[in-house]
Backbone:
């Protein structure tokens, strides 16, 4: 029976007869003599792998000369992989156009913002706007889909590989002009929205508008550049998606692997037509910040609000930071379980075996160049064994969320374009808010601003800088209907052309808040503040808030002496309808942020799934189909006490004398469902 899109919610693939969790690796059969394949695949089986991703950089092997295709090696590689029990994900090779193409048709090459064309030799050297390039990319994707679209061993497709860098050549410029025309309709509307009277920027027609991403340009133009790259990448992906869908079994999924906070395009929009989100999780530092990495997973899960694939993750170390230290023993397994806890239905390592040459010879691998296991092999195989045991429990489950946070690309870009304080990094600010909420609730959904929010008792938007009139309407309905909306500093300042709202912050949300921001201040040193939940400090940014409505409560004030901010309100809250809106006007330092988060969660009855005394211990749960899987991970170097949940069966990991060992994991199964947004503790 062919599955429907709904089956994709919480299962690695749409094939009913395939494992619900994929575990495997990127494999490059084209790097090795064929007689070696069997041995490599046998090692994969020993590593408990069930999946390989193939071909995403193999264009020059699949089409060695223009229009001359050779897929026989790939037929044999897929067949060999499936003999060893591997599901196959096929990558289209468009991240690496071959030399015959770039030499004969240099117009396919990317042009940077200064007009310099890329040269051949690396990857991603193509232009996302080139019609000719799209024709070639579509053709190879189509050939692959014709050949493998009904191959039952192929469970899905990855389009391209980590798309991102835009191009600025004449074709891009042409697309830019028609994009703007479509967005604004008339040049007068554009002039009005961008306020082009400023510095005599008035345009007579769309053809006059420069294609720029950086520099002293109108903020409306710079934000629209991001809208343009979103539209162009979406369309670029669609080109191959159409080619694949025309020939592929509907059970084969189509995805593209992305890079979490990558600022190149709006990931929500790009994923609208793809079946699932997948991403590449690398940690550059051997001392991972587990909460920040958890936020990365939650962000990616929010792209489609569905379980996702970890299409790549490191087998130990990376090769692109000054000191590429390996993760400590146990941390690769920890990262694997963390991904699963946050909603990954697949984990694939990059890469399987050290390539003999090429730009990434020193990367962490599962096998060495000699084809025998690297020291990390056993840890990966152990994780694979555990996942296999846990699969029946994990099947058809999704992460349990207690609350939500909003991440909005327009707001992030608008802030990045005009930080006012060099340290106002919107991702850092988001993560600072996320941290205590994740610790306290053990389940935070990260969502776009237009998501359905009514299931979440608490929704936090750390810096919702850009708010449109329709966003404001939806948020108001959420609050009036009983939700608690918390806005962070710099919220409600801009519209989606990056222009200031004519009223003060929070712009169209001002009537709902019954208050406004009198003035904002970039801080060169922290200011103190005191509130209903104790005293603390704010740094980088602070706003002076002014209540207007009578029922506005002041939750915190800046202390005296703080210059302009002396005794001024810093945090306000107001009951509205059946819900509440709170505005936090300052970037609170960790202590105070945590106390505020705890108060807000307590007010909404949000508690942990399983309480723990250590911030090194990450607890999270997946639930569905009448069962719940609770995953506890000790990310620290010391054992930590762990109370086993009542009525639970341990299905993986160890608890020794009531403690979770350093870098240890324990996984429990409980035979009942836990609703995704239920509030209180369940165990
Ligand atoms: C990315 C790419 C891979 C490889 C890894 C190594 O995720 O997709 O091809 O280069 O990085 O960091």
Residues:
């Amino acid at each position: 029976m062919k599955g429907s899109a709904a089956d994709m919610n919480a299962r690695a693939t749409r094939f009913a007869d395939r494992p619900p969790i994929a575990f495997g690796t990127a494999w490059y059969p084209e790097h090795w003599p064929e007689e070696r394949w069997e041995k490599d695949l046998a090692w994969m089986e020993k590593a408990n792998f069930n999946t390989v991703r193939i071909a995403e950089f193999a264009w020059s092997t699949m089409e060695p000369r223009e229009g001359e295709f050779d897929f026989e090696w790939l037929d044999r590689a897929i067949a060999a992989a499936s003999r060893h029990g591997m599901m196959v994900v096929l990558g289209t090779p468009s991240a690496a156009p071959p030399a015959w193409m770039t030499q004969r048709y240099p117009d396919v090459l990317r042009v940077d913002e200064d007009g310099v064309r890329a040269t051949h030799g690396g990857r991603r050297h193509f232009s996302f706007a080139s019609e000719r390039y799209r024709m070639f990319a579509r053709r190879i994707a189509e050939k692959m889909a014709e050949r493998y679209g009904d191959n039952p061993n192929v469970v899905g497709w990855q389009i391209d590989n980590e798309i991102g860098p835009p191009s600025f050549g004449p074709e891009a410029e042409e697309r830019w002009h028609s994009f703007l025309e479509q967005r604004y309709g008339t040049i007068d509307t554009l002039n009005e929205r961008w306020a082009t009277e400023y510095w005599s920027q008035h345009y007579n027609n769309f053809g006059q508008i420069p294609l720029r991403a950086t520099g002293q340009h109108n903020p409306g133009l710079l934000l629209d550049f991001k809208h343009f790259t979103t539209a162009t990448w979406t369309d670029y992906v669609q080109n191959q998606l159409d080619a694949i869908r025309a020939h592929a079994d509907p059970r084969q999924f189509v995805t593209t692997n992305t890079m979490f906070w990558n600022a190149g395009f709006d990931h929500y929009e790009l994923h609208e037509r793809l079946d699932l989100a997948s991403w590449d999780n690398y940690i550059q530092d051997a001392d991972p910040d587990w909460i920040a990495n958890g936020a990365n997973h939650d962000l990616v899960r929010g792209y489609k609000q569905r379980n996702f694939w970890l299409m790549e993750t490191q087998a130990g170390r990376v090769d692109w930071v000054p000191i590429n230290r390996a993760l400590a023993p146990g941390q690769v397994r920890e990262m694997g379980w963390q991904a699963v806890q946050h909603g990954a239905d697949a984990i694939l390592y990059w890469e399987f075996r050290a390539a003999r040459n090429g730009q990434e010879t020193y990367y962490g691998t599962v096998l060495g160049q000699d084809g025998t296991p690297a020291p990390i092999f056993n840890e990966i195989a152990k994780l694979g064994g555990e996942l296999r045991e846990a699969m029946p429990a994990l099947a058809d489950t999704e992460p349990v969320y207690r609350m939500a946070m909003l991440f909005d690309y327009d707001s992030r870009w608008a802030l990045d374009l005009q930080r006012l304080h060099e340290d106002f990094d919107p991702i850092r600010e988001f993560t600072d808010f996320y941290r205590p909420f994740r610790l306290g609730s053990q389940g935070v959904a990260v969502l776009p601003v237009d998501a359905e929010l009514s299931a979440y008792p608490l929704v936090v938007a750390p810096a919702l800088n850009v708010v449109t009139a329709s966003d404001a309407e939806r948020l108001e309905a959420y609050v009036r209907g009983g939700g608690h909306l918390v806005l962070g500093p710099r919220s409600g300042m801009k519209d989606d052309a990056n222009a200031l709202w004519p009223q003060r912050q929070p712009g169209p949300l001002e009537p709902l808040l019954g208050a406004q921001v009198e003035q904002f201040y970039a801080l060169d040193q922290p200011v103190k503040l005191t509130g209903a939940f104790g005293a603390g400090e704010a740094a980088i940014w602070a706003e002076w808030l002014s209540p207007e409505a009578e029922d506005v409560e002041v939750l915190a004030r800046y202390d005296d002496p703080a210059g302009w901010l002396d005794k001024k309100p810093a945090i306000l809250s107001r009951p509205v309808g059946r819900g509440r809106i709170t505005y936090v006007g300052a970037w609170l330092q960790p202590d105070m942020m945590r106390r505020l988060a705890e108060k807000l969660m307590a007010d909404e009855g949000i508690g942990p799934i399983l309480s723990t005394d250590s911030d090194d211990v990450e607890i999270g749960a997946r639930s569905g189909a009448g069962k719940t899987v609770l995953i506890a991970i000790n990310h620290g170097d010391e054992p930590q006490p762990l109370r086993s949940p009542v009525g639970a069966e341990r299905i993986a990991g160890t608890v020794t004398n009531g403690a979770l060992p350093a870098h240890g994991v324990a996984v429990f199964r409980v035979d009942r469902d836990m609703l995704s947004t239920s509030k209180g503790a369940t165990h």
Q: What stands out?
A: Residues 1-6, 676-683 have pLDDT under 50 and may be disordered. The chain has three domains: 22-166+230-394, 403-603, 617-677. The CA atoms of residues 12 and 345 lie 5 Å apart. Residues 219-245 form the longest helix (27 residues).
